[in-house]
Task: structure prediction
Amino acid sequence: MNNFRLKEEKARFAREEAAELERKLAPAKAELAATLQRADKMTKAYWIQSLSHLAGLIASGSFEPDHGVTYPSTDEQQSGSRGRDQFQEFVTVTLPRRGFVLSEAGSQRLLYFVLAQAFSENRADLANPETWKIAFDRLYSLQCFDETANAPEIGYDESQRIVEPVIEQPAPEPDIEKIDTSTREGAAKARAIVAKAVFGPHGEARVVFNNFRSHCRKVFGIDLDVQQQKEIVNWFVSNRRSFLSNSWDEMRVNLVRRRILPQSCLTEEEILANSIEDEDTTSYQGRRNLKQEIIASRNRN
Result:
């Protein structure tokens, strides 16, 4: 079995193993989803209670932790004015920019909720603006703010919302593996992508290509000349392989077979694999040659 077939078998085994693991994990995932759903219901049931009741719980030191999301945490002392500025900034500036308006009661509910997360086992950081954002989104998603009262705890004003400017990202390079290189236009496009990826100043594959050259020099004692480097690029283009894929060994073996790279660029395992594939083991001489090759391989190791 040559290296290419061996890799295919390993890939197939990995896929089957992943599928089997997914099958075994399915019941656990379903149970986890059900547990999180129950936790959401319990969190909502607790935090939709009246503000007066929640105030009494907080005053008595009863801090109900929320395990549905993760908050930025801290081991620092959380007392005094810690988090006061972040709370005011979030309620008066950040939320209105998103179009939301919290009443005094809504702000109080958010404050109680965050205090509970800060002084419970969650140790949520009151001074971290992200804590207030996560807490608000959590209460809002669970519909904990009272919107049915005469004075709703939360409102929405589209006119206050500030739309953040969208920064256009440059269009991603097309995937070379999806380009039809059988056409002249496709081949030219693939070569342009490869040239930019390998030889461009910011090409992602540049480091990988240079590492391969260093590997050949250190392991096989060969400095790749210009023509050999071009053939490497041509192989990746014609086979529609990404330079960031795990195709380097396959390419190297192929170029040795085509005598572009010397035989010395093969490992002992690859030499033996080629011998097994090329030898006619149905004849006596073929079996004899193969046996000698195996012995020679063991001696070289």
Remarks:
- The longest helix spans residues 3-47.
- The chain has a mean pLDDT of 81.
- The radius of gyration is 32 Å.
- DSSP finds eleven helices and two strands in the chain.
